[in-house]
User: Fold these one by one.
Assistant:
Number 1:
Amino acid sequence: MVKKTAELDKKNPKKTQKRADAFTKKRNVHTRRSGKKPRKAEMSEKKRAVFTCLRYASMCMVAAALFTGFYFLFIRPYAYRWKTSNSPKAYGVYMPEGYGVHGIDISHHQGDIDWEKLQTVREDSFPICFVFMKASEGGDFNDESFAQNFSQARRYGFVRGAYHFYNPRTDALRQADFFIRTVKLEPGDLPPVLDIETKTNNMAKLRRDLKLWLDRVERHYKVKPILYASYKFKTKYLNDSVFNSYPYWIAHYYVDSVEYRGEWNFWQHTDVGTLPGIDEHVDLNVFNGTYDELKRMTIPAENNIVER
């Protein structure tokens, strides 16, 4: 009988299609009455729901990771700029309390400076008394603005100083001699400064090389150089009896007070100061002492500096 029906179906395909349509219609009616869905459709809908949940969960995780990264990289380090403080405000920032001698440090990054306008800050409620200027970097890079700035600082009555940005990949004595050729310090100027910010894979060698630079420069200018380093760099790599013997200029931003437990002379407390005569942001500093103590720290008149 089945065989015979199959043969009839082959001969009569339209009849076969009608029979199939009738069966499908009957099954759909049964499904609606019973409230059940076909098994395949039910499984497909569950998969879609699971996929949707996973997709939203992954999106939330990515958003949380991005926000966390943004906070720790761009908000948390600079939150001190915006927080409410009882400290007085000047030059666009909250000023550290308890210090009466203020200064700045500049380089070619500040562009052309209008020293006529800048000198007005000497009479401000937070008078700018001293200016450090970048003179050299590595073994052959002169800061293009140094000569002009160094001359103008003396002309407009600021206590001036010069610093060298150290490059660990260049011979230390070559760097020292390059700084000596570049900077002609005079009585009344602050001691030369060694700016060290870059670590290496061989920190023992770096410490030896830094000492070579410091010794060569001290012999020439007959005054102990100032060591500039961030709070973290100094405490981690240069916090020993050798380097603690040098005057210390600490870089430590966006904090109420210096956390360094040793002695220090200068504190660079922000890099976003705004001053008349300077279009770009500028680093602000304080001296840990009185103005008379700052003057006593400068190169004395009796130092006979032999220029090369």
Number 2:
Amino acid sequence: MPTKKLDFKTGQYVVYPTQGVGKLLRVEEQTIGDQKIKMMVIDFERNHMTLRVPLERAELSGLRPLSSVKKMDEAIASAKGKAGAKRMIWARRAAQYEENINSGDPMKLAEVVRDLQRRSATDTMTFSARQLYLRALERMAQEFAVLHKMDLDAASDKIEDILGVPKEIDLNAIEEDDEEDDDGSDNDE
């Protein structure tokens, strides 16, 4: 079965499904046994990892170029939609979310973000749901950051702003009005 030839260039950002966005450093030839194999060397700076992918297995591994800005915008728009039905037990849904995150597909990442995002400032999340949400958001933000030439934290914030995700409530924050009214007297009694 013929496959299309993926054409990557040194210095190009690429997406490896299970790791996110990395930069193609070079293509090198390695000898394994008595075979010479061309390997793509990809640096994942955020994970402090270098990955070598055989050139002939790149497509099969799911390695792909970055999405277009238009496709990323469509993914973010789909994450604004109504959360999907939650009829499955959590373990099955979590496994599906994990599979979507590891697919590297912006639309599947958007599904996870859509289903797990907080809808109001008082919404709570389980630890595992929060971890899945943050991983999906980070994968989307990695690609968004490179496409829009911004840092990862700014990209995450921008995506959450677009989606209208409420900010975390800082329980230690003191409102300015409370400080001004606090004259040492106890008026509440």
Number 3:
Amino acid sequence: MSEAPEDSFISHLVELRDRLLRSLIAIAVVMGGLCLYPGPGMIYDFLAAPLTSALPEGTKMVAIGVVTPFMVPLKVTGMVAFVAALPFILYQAWAFIAPGLYAHEKRLGIPLIISSTVLFVAGMSFCYYFVFGQVFHFIASFAPKSITPAPDIEAYLSFVMTMFMAFGIAFEVPVALVVLVKLGVVSVEKLKEWRSYFIVGAFVVAAVVTPPDVVSQLALAVPMCLLYELGILAARLVSRPAPPPAATTDPAVDAENSAKMESELDKAEAEFGNLRGN
């Protein structure tokens, strides 16, 4: 007996709730471990290193709010816990939607989870180790001598999270292209035709989400364009045409074909005999 639509909808909601709870529990467990070692303070110091190295000697960041020195390092720890638990979170999302996919689409699950995690972390790492150093030194070089920069730690956290999200999502371009091509939404030829539009869009997005300096804009736009080419290459590999179907081995079909051939041969022999008799 088929399940009623209302029951099916409720069961999906229950499953979604359970998978969200599992994801939150995973983040909480990882965050608890990070609070024990190395601790929120050391994690925030590591995050703030690119900015503090660009500040004048002896200058430190400031905390304006009363609870800011406690809350900001805790938020940073939560962000790190989320990234560490990202493979498990992506798996929960995939397990929720997988029952509605075809078999050939389900085979993409594990590769997409691994590649998405690796590319997102790669985008954040690129932002931290390359972009931050260049941007902060570039900005510090324009600061007047009469000003002593002392950034607020909460404003710095907001800036860092925005940049991390921008670079992490930007590095997911190859995964997005592969999924679109594999689902038949777009073809590789169309992606090639849209290359020039994507380049313009990449520079527009970089100008919007990054600080108003050339260094950070180029640091986001150029990798996006390169990753677009990588996505086209990967999409071409996964969209190879399937081999032609093998000949049928159904006995009934073979018998029917044999009977047709014998009938045609009999007709040909009869016509040949008539011609000789005439």
Number 4:
Amino acid sequence: MTKEIKKADEPKKLAAKKTTSIPKSETKQIGVSEARAKKIKHSYKVKDPENSLVLKLKDGDVVIEMFADAAPNHVARIKELVRSKFYDGLKFHRVIEGFMAQTGCPLGTGTGGSGQKIPAEFSNLPHKRGTVSMARAMHPHSADSQFFICFNNCEWLDGQYTIWGEVTSGMEYVDMITKGKGPNGQVQYPDEIITIRVVADL
């Protein structure tokens, strides 16, 4: 007599686990090793790390060397703002093809600033392709946190705006900043500064 073979039970399906996303601020961030940090810093090949910036844009890194001799007060204030991460996430609100890209307004409208005016430090330096200069209102001493990067030579600005730096690498990424089509270069969907850091701090 043969034993009746019972059909095996169907395998039970496990209920899907409910997952919740954890805010980025609460996740553990893996830091950069000291050796790696040194390698990154040296890769920028700047003359003076304390007076050089790395501006991260959507398309790549832009290196700006600052003119501490020509505009010491502006350079000191820019570094102060950079180190407080004031510029991170700010928009290039005014960008005019063939002219310049302007940023540094916390309101994203061109009407705001950090609340601290800087006396003008005009010089004989020319506004040329890659020049980084302060934006201002009509009054010569009204520069605050807003600045612009020239796409081309803009000699008509010479002696009227404080030049505090120059792009030494990554100008091709500045060229890729979204241009404005609105009044006076207003950008509808502006690019942002991802981060900006003093090279010595990397």
